[in-house]
Amino acid sequence: MKKRYLKWFPILLSILLCFEAGCAKDFGNQETQQAFSEYTDQLFRSEVSASTLNMHYCLAHPENYGISEYPVTFGTVSNESSGESAVLLENWKKKLKEFQKKELTVSQQLTYDIMMDYIEKELPAAKYGLYSEILRPSTGFQSQLPVLLAEYTFYDEQDIRDYLGLISCTPDFFQQIMEVERKKSEQGLFMADFAVDDIIKQCQNFTENPESNYLLSTFDSRIQEAAGFLTAEQAEAYKVQNRQLVLEQFIPAYQMLAEELSKLKGTGKNSGGLCGLPDGKEYYRYLVADVTGSALSVEEMQKQTEQNRKENLEELSQLALKYPDVGKKCNNYQLPTEDPELILKDLQQKMQQDFPTPPEVNFTIKSVHPSLEEYTAPAFYLTPPIDDISQNCIYINQSKGDNKLKLYTTLAHEGFPGHLYQNVMERSSGLSSIRSLFGSSGYAEGWATYVEMQSFYYADVDPKVAAYLQKNQAALLSLYATADMGIHNDGWTLRDTIDFFASYQITDKQVIKEIYQLIVEEPAHYLKYYIGYLEFLNLRQYAIQKYGDQYSNFKFHSALMKMGPAPFELLKKYLPKYWQE
Description:
With about 575 residues, this protein is mostly helical. It contains 22 helices and three strands. It has helices at about 30-50, 50-60, 80-95, 105-120, 140-150, 155-185, 195-205, 215-225, 230-265, 280-290, 300-320, 325-330, 340-350, 405-415, 420-425, 440-455, 465-490, 495-500, 510-520, 525-545, 555-565, 570-580, and strands spanning about 360-365, 380, 390-395.
């Protein structure tokens, strides 16, 4: 997910936070270090409280962080927000320069560099304020909000009041979104018609049966669980209030959103990649750097993607030649279990040789509600607050048909040693709160993809089958990444995209059309997975070359968990300071 506070954006499955903990002894000016901590803590309190939804998913107990009074709000979305962000960033930059970085601890130096890197990259991007899109079929605000509200934990009665306040804020916030969409329409930056159709259909699915909307039943269940701090009369009153707000404000807000979007349909000037917009190619390059956390140029990404795909396809060919029956075995293998909880426990046991042991935490497996299945990923993980990592939730989209090894590797991506593992490891290691404001999707999804590829070899299947399926998965993901860059950077049309996939024996035109439209709707979406994955491979290769016989996957992964999310160049720079011989 993108940065959560400066540029308002909803919490998503892969919200990644990181900690501040150094392996080396830190010598420096303690007064400077204390002042830096106080400044970053103050900054954290200010930014995290700007959105009640973000704050709740970041902090279970904001009062312990000095946050006792705050407005209940989703934040703001406006045409002027980019200018305000630029001023804020300049103030950050000025304040940071007041600190002598060499006097800070190693962990503080990393935080300093992450913040300065963020500022330097965001300042020139202020002019692209209207190019970003908050409404997207898969990762947009309107798609994520229902799930986030359904999972909104009630730690105390104030949380219930905040939740109901957010429900009542939704109509106004959707109006703010539509004001921006109308501005985008006026300037020729509005979305393509097929994107409008997808979002309208999504809103209609969610509002189709108001009386059975799952925000009613999930709220009632959580209220029952809150009996420890509510009387029976209070619980019943809150149920009545929630029902009224959902039926009279929340659902009508989605209906309004669909109606207003339909009025703008046909005003979009571009139904292809971002490069079809004025300055769109430049915006895409900024977006790619922002999303991936990589310093590679788009051209360098394209070259490395093609090279890795070539290597994977050659390895697939060699496997097929050496083991002619491997393809048949890929369709007939069996796993000991297809129970998600048992799979996660199996992964926890298998990963021990390559990854540090995580702290004991609970996790639950839930199914995506049918009204959200069509536009939801095959699975996703909701991160717990930084001050309460005890509860973790993984959603599985039953409509995507995950089974066998696909389910196994998907749970590795979302659970162990993927998102869930990464979060609890980082958060249990001396987390500095300010770092929860930073971190690219490329780090989060790149890590999860990197360990997903490893998990093929943890499954109890023939090693040849595991290798064949893993190489095939990596090659397939590389095709999506190349298509993303081709469409948005090079101006590929649907015809170009069909021809590209056809060259790899993928010829279903309807499927390719759907892929093309998804990539248009969600630029750089596939790059956070694949380019992030490649960057972890690059970083691992660097560590192997640097440490030689002293290298081990265990040490490499331990260092990464200590550094936490950061641009890949900074991870490479700081790796020696976190490496333990």
